[in-house]
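WARN no homologs supplied; continuing
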Amino acid sequence: MQKMIQLIAIFCWCGFAVAHNHDQHKGFDIKVTDLGSRIFELRTDRSGNVAVLIGEDGVFMVDTQMEHLAELIDGAQKKLSNNRDVDLILNTHFHRDHVRGNAYFKERGAITMAHPNVRRYLENPGALKALGREAPKFTPQYFPTIDVTEDTSIKMNGQSIELYYAPNAHTNSDLFVAFKEANIIHGGDLVSTRRFPFIDIDNGGSIAGFIAGLKAIIEAADADTQIIAGHGPIATLGDLEASIAMLNETHNIIKALIDQGLSLEAIKALDPLNKYTDKWNWAFITTERMVTTHYYDITGLLE
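OK structure emitted
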């Protein structure tokens, strides 16, 4: 597999999940952060954060945001890459705010990769009952070109790029990406800096798996690692550890109420996670939605 990916890179050189703010507005700037080693974070705060690695072998991109943002993302990376097209893309998971730009870049020659479960979910996404929403629709133009697993190692632009699979975490299609020499990790939506995470119970996500995914990132990192979040600013190990502690604490609170025989509506009425609101609540995953996530995770009941 490694040789195949290397050949892909050479060939290229020679030749939604649910989202919280996916408006059609384009009147804003892409926030570009230079992380060193020719790796950049491209952030809109409207969809999942993008990373690009730029060098002689070409342009490698992690996640592609939404259709109406893809041209803006491409324009930002072209300013950095001396007008190069994107050659190789890795989707961290199947949610639409990370894959809907795929079609735009595929039309321009990019090869897309993802965990095999990404294609499975794109072909047959589950309804988001926990959020009261219908399943999004995807056509083959958004599908990855190549399935990859955590056994895949990519060598490109002087970086050893390792892929790690986190099963049943944010979804059951999550990969996080480690740029070894640069000591940079893109955590996908396993990392939502200083906010409640979205854990997609309908599509294979779980509290235990999410915590295990965060621990896997911590194990792959050190105190100096720059961690690109799926949403939010660059994260630290302390941010990840705080998320683990919050998830364990809030899970125990909701489990105790379920053990008392209370229904979801009765638990919501108690507002049992209110002390976490100021620090963790945000527009998409509110405190009430976090209660719902824990309830469905513990009971297995999607009402």
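The longest strand covers residues 159-166.
OK
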